[in-house]
Design goal:
Arc Repressor Mutant, subunit A, single chain, Jelly Rolls, 2 domains, 9 strands, five-stranded antiparallel beta sheet, about 300 residues
C-alpha cells in the first residue's frame, strides 16, 4: 500500500496467488501450475489484482487473450510469453481454448539470481507480451520442474534450481532475439539500474534528491546517469517521476482517494503542484483522467 494510505474498499485486490489471501512467503518461493487451474473456474476472466512480492512468467501454449497491466492493454496470441513484474496491477481475459503454464517466483529469489546473472534483470523490467516463433523448448523443462516441485527425491532442491535457471535463460534469449525495448546485455550498468529501481520502489514518495539516491547506491552521480541512459534510456530522476506517475494512475483508477489525498499519499505538499505534474504527463487533469477512465469501464 502506498505510504500513508488507508485501506479502502475500492483498492485493487492484493493476493498471495490469485484468489488467495496474502501471506508470508519464503525468500526462495517458487510455484508452477497449469494456466487453466485458475482461469477456468473464473470463467476465463481474472480481474485486476496485484502481488506485493511475486513475479509471473506466463507461457501461453494455446489460445489468446487480453492482458491489462497498469492501465495498458496488450493483446496476445499463442505461442507467447507474458512477463509480469511484482507490484504490477494486472488482469486477464482468455479465450476458453487458452492453455499453458504460470511460473511464479518470489521477488527476493529473482533478485538473488540477478546478483549471479545480471542479465536476468531485464526479465521483469516492465510488463511485456513476448511472441515466440515455433514451439517453446521451455515447455518440456517446465513439466519436469513441476514434478520436482511436488516430490522430495534425492537432489530435488538442486534439480529445481537447475531447471528454473534453464527456463529463465530460455526466456532471456527470447527477449534478446525479439530486441524488445529495455533489453541490454548483462553488465554492471544493468545491475546498477536494477538496484536503483529497488530504491525507487522503496522511496519514490519520499521526495529523495538524486544525491541521496547515489549515496544509498554508493556510486557517483555520473555513474548512475550513464547507467540509466544506457539501460533505461532515461535520466535517473525521470525514472523516479515515472514511478510516481504510475502510482498516481493506480490511485486514481483503483481507489476512491480524492485528488488532495492522492497528492499527499504520493509525497506532494501541494495538490495544485500534483495536478500540474500529472497533467503534464497525462495530457489532462487527475479528475479528467479519472472521469474518462470511469466512462471507459462503464461503456
Amino acid at each position: 500500500m502506498p505510504r500513508g494510505a488507508a485501506q479502502r474498499d475500492t483498492e485493487v485486490p492484493s493476493f498471495f496467488l490469485y484468489g488467495e489471501p496474502r501471506r508470508e512467503i519464503g525468500p526462495r518461493f517458487l510455484h508452477l501450475e497449469p494456466l487453466e487451474d485458475r482461469s477456468r473456474p473464473n470463467d476465463w476472466n481474472i480481474r485486476a489484482h496485484t502481488h506485493a512480492n511475486l513475479n509471473h512468467v506466463f507461457f501461453i501454449q494455446e489460445g489468446s487473450g487480453v492482458l491489462l497491466a497498469d492501465g495498458e492493454t496488450m493483446r496476445f496470441e499463442a505461442p507467447c510469453i507474458l512477463l509480469i513484474p511484482a507490484r504490477t496491477v494486472h488482469g486477464f481475459t482468455y479465450t476458453p481454448t487458452a492453455a499453458g503454464w504460470v511460473l511464479t517466483i518470489a521477488d527476493a529469489y529473482w533478485r538473488e539470481l540477478v546478483a549471479r546473472e545480471p542479465g536476468f534483470a531485464a526479465l521483469f523490467a516492465a510488463p511485456l507480451s513476448l511472441p515466440v516463433a515455433g514451439e517453446m523448448d521451455a515447455l518440456g523443462r517446465l513439466r519436469i520442474l513441476a514434478q520436482e516441485l511436488v516430490w522430495n527425491a534425492p537432489g530435488y532442491t538442486a534439480a529445481i534450481e537447475g531447471h528454473l535457471l534453464c527456463v529463465l535463460v530460455t526466456v532471456l534469449r527470447f527477449l534478446h532475439h525479439a530486441a524488445q525495448p529495455g533489453f541490454t546485455a548483462a553488465s554492471r550498468s544493468t545491475a546498477l539500474v536494477a538496484r536503483f529501481r529497488d530504491f525507487i520502489e522503496i522511496h519514490y514518495a519520499a521526495g529523495l534528491s538524486l544525491s541521496r539516491y547515489v549515496a544509498l547506491l554508493r556510486v557517483t552521480e555520473a555513474q548512475l546517469r550513464r547507467a540509466c541512459v544506457q539501460v533505461a534510456r532515461q535520466a535517473p530522476m525521470l525514472m523516479v517521476q515515472d514511478r510516481i506517475f504510475l502510482e498516481a494512475q493506480r490511485v486514481l483508477l483503483y481507489t476512491n482517494m480524492t485528488v488532495g489525498e492522492a497528492a499527499h499519499d504520493l509525497g506532494f505538499s501541494d495538490s495544485a503542484y500534483f495536478s500540474r505534474f500529472f497533467a503534464k504527463r497525462a495530457g489532462r487533469s487527475p479528475r479528467a483522467f479519472r472521469q474518462q477512465a470511469g466512462a471507459g469501464r462503464d461503456a
